[in-house]
Amino acid sequence: MSLLEMVQQKNMNMLPERYKTMTVDEMESRVWEVKNKLGDKLFIPGHHYQKDEVIQFADAVGDSLQLAQVSAKNTAAEYIVFCGVHFMAETADILTSDKQKVILPDMRAGCSLADMANIEQTERGWQELQETFRDTIIPLTYVNSTAAIKAFVGRHGGATVTSSNARPMLEWAFTQKERVLFLPDQHLGRNTAFDMGIPLDKMAVWDPVLEKFEYNGDLDEVKIILWKGHCSVHAMFTVENVKQVRKNHPDAKIIVHPECSREVVALADDAGSTKYIIETIKASAPGTKWAVGTEMNLVNRLTKQFADKEVFSLNPYMCACLTMNRIDLPHLLWALENVERGEVMNQIIVEANIASEAHLALERMLARA
Predict the structure, then answer these.
(1) What are 328-353's pLDDT values in tens digits?
(2) How far is 181 from 90, CA to CA, in rounded Å?
(3) Are 117 and 150 in contact (CB under 8 A)?
(4) What is the pTM of this model?
(5) Which of 96, 117, 175, 363 could be disulfide-bonded to 100 (CB atoms 3.0-4.6 Å)?
(6) Cβ distance 313 to 302 under 8 Å?
(7) Which residues in 275-296 are b (16+ Cβ under 10 Å) and which e?
(8) 332, 57 Cβ separation under 8 angstroms
(9) Which residues have C-beta within 8 Å of that of residue 366, sequence separation ≥ 6?
(10) In sequence order, what are the residues at sequence separation of 6 or more whose Cβ sits closer than 8 angstroms to the Cβ of residue 123?
(11) Which residue segments constitute the domains of the chain, with CATH numbers given?
(12) How far is residue 215's CA from residue 222's CA, in Å, rounded to a whole number?
């Protein structure tokens, strides 16, 4: 892409000035107006971590894969305006039909975790792993990854995983090969494998930047190769946070996401996917206290939703996920008004060959759901 093309693309994706001067009431009124006008032609999925200002308009709220699946089933919808991040919109494009257009209101909405595994690094790392371990490895990737990484995994016989089904998928992977490469979140891979009884000394970390193992033992003993990636949000929950909650709120239960470090998960009372966290707090008795180790927009929403309980963040200084926060009311309205005029901007299109191989990885997981 030339410099001129890059500048033109950037200008096309810049929020017009008028959206910066509209009042909240004006924007909300227009969003409802466009939604009502487009009717079934429009579907707005909203991820749990999104701001309330856009979640209020969501036709479905959930985790990334769930929202992509719901979007695909909603065949009447011609436009899927995805309130989430880039890899989620990619998955939606992979699963939806060619007649449906997936739109991301703000193209800056990415994911630091997904960005920690790019395809060039992965291809180079895979070659090194093959030389070290020969044909004894199968790759698994967390759905929080790019379409290119999902395609890589599909091409090499592997599958995707979610935080809800990581264990059964890891168990399946070991029926296929002797070892597993787990991308891109080392913490989800480590916590899942540890819960299966695999000791930490049989897990090696692959550093894609330095292109070497972080491991002091005998590589022949390794069962899990963990990609050196992490969620920047969940990495902010620390052992010190747990100690402070135990000291200041001894009657509180601590529940965290498995993207947190092994040390934090080990000290928590419970750990599980976003859906598991929501359902566990929902089912708990009135008056119970919960310190939650996950994204702040969701924690704040749980605090409001379950007012009969005391819900607060495990880290009192936690901020909402920066990239998740990119989708705001002005960008949502801008995307919808473009659709209303018949102008599709910020459409997410996964190349056919990548989509096909990524679909293989998704199918292998969904077949075991």
Answers:
(1) 999 999 999 999 999 999 999 999 99
(2) 22
(3) no
(4) 0.92
(5) 96
(6) no
(7) ebbbebbeebeeeebbbbbbbb
(8) yes
(9) none
(10) 152
(11) 3-108+324-350 (3.40.50.10800), 114-231 (3.40.50.10800), 234-313 (3.40.50.10800)
(12) 9
Q: The dihedral of CA 123, 125, 128, 132: what is its sign?
A: negative
* Burial class (CB within 10 angstroms; exposed 0-12, middle 13-18, buried 19+) of 16: exposed
Per-residue pLDDT tens over the stretch 35-48: 999 999 999 999 99
Tokens 């707090």 appear where?
Answer: 281
Whole-number Å distance between alpha carbons of 325 and 49: 8
Report the distance separating Cα 66 and Cα 69, nearest Å: 5
CB half-sphere exposure, 348, CA atoms < 13 A: 33
Cis peptide before 184 (omega within 30 of 0): yes
Q: Classify residue 116 by its DSSP letter.
A: T
